[in-house]
Amino acid sequence: MNKKEESKQLIKSLLENIGEDVNRPGLLDTPKRCVNMYEELLSQTNVDPKHEINTFFESDNEEPILVKDIQFYSLCEHHMLPFFGVCHIAYIPNNKKITGLSKLARLVESASKRLQIQEDMTLMIAKAMEEQLNPKGVYVIIEAEHMCMAMRGIRKLGSKTVTSKKTGVFLEDKDLVRDIEYKIKL
């Protein structure tokens, strides 16, 4: 039996163990659909997202570049439930090196498709930016709603978790940080 078939059997066993009738019409294809869903949602497991930043340009711009409200969804490694929200990425070019704006969205997409905690996703994105662009500084902010808090346990629908990572000049220049945070709120 291949891994996909094993996974389908595991989903079928889970359904049976919680008391479901796996032969009822609505559940006949559920194991297959679940396996396909997890393959899609976790497709970047063990893939370094920095490789999404693979196109470079030159620019004389020395001011911050901010791409905000990059939507994403991911899965919490604790409950395998979704968390979703937006990521904001700001960086200041170094040695005229910039990347395409879509590469930042691709970076977030790649970083999100794995089991993880939001805190680690934030660090992963900042690290990829540092490694690929060697900017003067990076500022990554993620705002997300976690279904493990909304659907179970405390049941606080609508609460958001905000994580951030600053490097380089963003650690030193409070005015620069305030400027980025103001632009994010616009």
From TrEMBL:
<feature type="binding site">
    <location>
        <position position="79"/>
    </location>
    <ligand>
        <name>Zn(2+)</name>
    </ligand>
</feature>
<protein>
    <recommendedName>
        <fullName>GTP cyclohydrolase 1</fullName>
        <ecNumber>3.5.4.16</ecNumber>
    </recommendedName>
</protein>
<feature type="binding site">
    <location>
        <position position="76"/>
    </location>
    <ligand>
        <name>Zn(2+)</name>
    </ligand>
</feature>
<dbReference type="InterPro" id="IPR001474">
    <property type="entry name" value="GTP_CycHdrlase_I"/>
</dbReference>
<keyword id="KW-0342">GTP-binding</keyword>
<dbReference type="GO" id="GO:0003934">
    <property type="term" value="F:GTP cyclohydrolase I activity"/>
</dbReference>
<dbReference type="Pfam" id="PF01227">
    <property type="entry name" value="GTP_cyclohydroI"/>
</dbReference>
<keyword id="KW-0554">One-carbon metabolism</keyword>
<comment type="subunit">
    <text>Homopolymer.</text>
</comment>
<keyword id="KW-0862">Zinc</keyword>
<keyword id="KW-0479">Metal-binding</keyword>
<keyword id="KW-0378">Hydrolase</keyword>
<feature type="domain" description="GTP cyclohydrolase I">
    <location>
        <begin position="9"/>
        <end position="178"/>
    </location>
</feature>
<comment type="pathway">
    <text>Cofactor biosynthesis; 7,8-dihydroneopterin triphosphate biosynthesis; 7,8-dihydroneopterin triphosphate from GTP: step 1/1.</text>
</comment>
<dbReference type="InterPro" id="IPR043133">
    <property type="entry name" value="GTP-CH-I_C/QueF"/>
</dbReference>
<feature type="binding site">
    <location>
        <position position="148"/>
    </location>
    <ligand>
        <name>Zn(2+)</name>
    </ligand>
</feature>
<dbReference type="InterPro" id="IPR020602">
    <property type="entry name" value="GTP_CycHdrlase_I_dom"/>
</dbReference>
<dbReference type="InterPro" id="IPR018234">
    <property type="entry name" value="GTP_CycHdrlase_I_CS"/>
</dbReference>
<comment type="similarity">
    <text>Belongs to the GTP cyclohydrolase I family.</text>
</comment>
<dbReference type="InterPro" id="IPR043134">
    <property type="entry name" value="GTP-CH-I_N"/>
</dbReference>
<keyword id="KW-0547">Nucleotide-binding</keyword>
